[in-house]
Amino acid sequence: MPSAPLPVVEIRSVANAQNEWVALLLGMPGAGLDDPALQDLFGTPDLLAAIAPLDCIVHVDDATVFTPPVLNVLPANRVLLAVRADALATDGTARRLAELQLAGYRVLIDGPLPEGVAAPVGLRTVARDARLELPRAAALPALFGPHLAYHVDDMARYGACENAGFSWFSGDYALEGSVPDGDDGTSRRRMLTMLALLARDADSHELEAQLKQDAILSYHLLKLVNSAAFSVGAQVTSFSQAISRLGRRQLQRWLQLLLYARQHPDGPPNLMLPLAALRGAALEAACRNEGGDRDEQDLAFMAGVFSLLDRLFRMPMAEVVQDLNLPEHVEAALLRRDGQLGQRLRLVESGRPDPATLEAAGVEGPDWWQSLLHAYHWAIQVARNV
């Protein structure tokens, strides 16, 4: 584990229009990464190895941070540079960014250009805070791209960004639940029944009987078990085989995640799936790092995954958990973010591991960093196999 303190940096996922994660966004304007933070984050191969094949987009406030030691740890084929547009008012910045682009870096100009400053020739990929005024509709497709919109916090803003020509998106729009077309509540009731069965460690035959009532969940389970992640030769064609292949512990884990699978086999992925996987894996790793046993790790994983069920079902969390008979500390974490588990859930939700939140969660910065790297690696693999 790294000995240096974890840089306090905001970390957010970035998805394309097909709801696939494509990159991680590190830092924000006004709190961009500086020279020491960049060297701490990229000075070891851990980060880029963990999130492969995703790229990293690093926010900086000006181009002076791109010193030779920093560039030595930023591989141009994996790292995009998002630089505040205000920096272009400083002499030499446009030339420096053009040099970086010639060296193979992809450079995004973040924000509107300062008054009186012309767009640099060759630097025509943009990033923009979606909470502010966006470029006019269809203004961006003629530029290089892909263009990034961040702080995209609802689907209405997502639509406006897409109309403007952005194709990479980051924000809470990913947390908006979706109710299947024509759903009369039957699907939701079946899913809640499955949750109750999982929470009380139900018999395999009960799980199999419930699975047979949900064609979409059944489809995704069999697809998963037959994927490259699990395949050992013989194709799995029945639920009993799936249960046998996975084992009860892994079956429960995957069924918890598969609740977030796409609503239709040929539909786009649900962006809540990798987010739920990230939360579950991060909380499980933190529990394991402090010596928690397998049962405690499973409960930590469950808390992370279940923390998005209110969003998925579009109903209060209190209604979701009322029939699940969860342990008291898990329920307290889900309902009020109480207790150590609740504080850790708050930490992974925040995307920004500041010292005060780390202390409240009872974890050290380097330990949490390793937990996050593990969680992102696992969530990326989940999203690629479901």
From TrEMBL:
One family from Pfam that matches here is HDOD
Instruction: Show where the HDOD domain sits.
Output: 184-379
Q: So which domain of life are we looking at? A: Bacteria
Which InterPro entries is this protein grouped with? HDOD, RNase_Y/CdgJ
Which chain positions lie within coiled-coil regions? Answer: none
- PROSITE patterns, sorted: HDOD
- Protein name (database record): HDOD domain-containing protein
**What broad taxonomic lineage does this protein's source fall under?**
Bacteria, Pseudomonadati, Pseudomonadota, Betaproteobacteria, Burkholderiales
